[in-house]
Amino acid sequence: MDNRKVIYKLGIVLGLAFSAGACKPTYDEIDNNNVISKPYVLYVGDTFGAIYRTNDGLNFQTVFGADNYPATAMVTSGANLIYIKKNVHIIEKLGQGNNNTNPTFMAPGAFSDYGESIIINVNTPAFKNRVYIGGTGKKGYIFNDSNGRPGISYSNWKDEDDINIPTGTIMTSFTLLDNNTLIAYDDVNKRTFKVSSPTQQWTQTTGSPLPTAGKFFLSHMGNIVLAADKTGANGVYYSANDGNSWSKYSGIPTSLQILSMCGGFGQTVLVGTNGGGVYRLPAGSTKFVTANIGMPKNAIVKSLSEKYDYYKNNTSKKYIYAATDQGVYRSQDLGENWVKVYENPDKKGSFTVMY
Asked: Using an 8 Å Cβ cutoff, are 91 and 100 in contact?
């Protein structure tokens, strides 16, 4: 056979091969355990009460089976997963070897009016994985320095009586700024507090309160405190001075309830709504725009979570996940585009919370 014909045919085969490769999805189909020095772990709960985990956004394993009590909040502390259903529960060592959960002393329904930020793990050099839970205690919160473990008769949970916190305070939301300042919000009395070390006492920071008619919860973008009204009527506010004064963003219809919010790695703000998908704050703007490319525009977005991958070549990659009524979605460009990465095995139910 003519050598030129052989070379020509080989070129066609190689060309087809490269073309086929170019049509593959743009997922990062990577074995995190081999090429990533510090893989993330994402936990997500559904309406049946089941909890799943993944470290690559593509392969999900069941951590806890369905019990018909959906989780409303969850955090990890050390090797433990702490989550809130009707009570507070813990799975030690991330459920390896068993799925035993131990409810704490919380009364059922104590957290029904507030969202996932009612619990936080403060993983800073000063706080060393201290877990705070709001909605209870002498001054509206309790804390745990044993990675959420109950202890005998729940002795590991401490009920602090800080003299700087007025009686009647109920901490309903927490967020940790990038400068390691912990911000707590009392939505019942519309006041904000801050603390930077477990040896300090809390300081009240709210100079001008948020609208009294709202039902606010916190997040942050870098060192900017964010406060969203769950009812949607008052939208989203921001504060550059730890809550001493507030300014308002625009762009989100007041007819939409706001269910979730995250600070987009300090570069943007994303808000999940009840039936309007995601809204995104463009860089340098104070007006939200819709951000539903790849996601149904009518999605109910109950939770948003940021995750990093740290690679062995010292690079990193940023992901934002959304728990919706139509599956788990992921964005690799700060919420501009979304791809569905998971749905319930039986394609029923929806997702309620993630961490």
From this structure: yes
pTM of the model: 0.87
Residue reference for tokens 């510090």: 38
pLDDT of residue 99: 59
pLDDT digits (tens, 9 = 90+) for 258-284: 999 999 999 999 999 999 999 999 989
Q: Report the relative pairing of strands 339-342 and 327-331 from DSSP bridges.
A: antiparallel
| Distant-in-sequence contacts of 121-128, Cβ < 8 A, 24+ apart | 121/75, 121/76, 121/77, 121/82, 121/148, 122/176, 122/182, 123/77, 124/176, 124/180, 125/180, 126/180, 126/196, 126/197, 126/198, 126/199, 127/182, 127/197, 127/198
Residue 325, both tokens: 């009524």
Token pair belonging to 60: 């999900």
Question: How many CA atoms are closer than 13 Å to the CA of 278, on its beta-carbon side?
Answer: 33
Residue 257 and residue 268: Cα distance in Å, rounded?
Answer: 20
Question: Listing from the earlier edge strand, what are the strands of the sheet with 51-54?
Answer: 61-64, 51-54, 42-46, 351-354
pLDDT digits (tens, 9 = 90+) for 107-122: 544 565 678 999 999 9
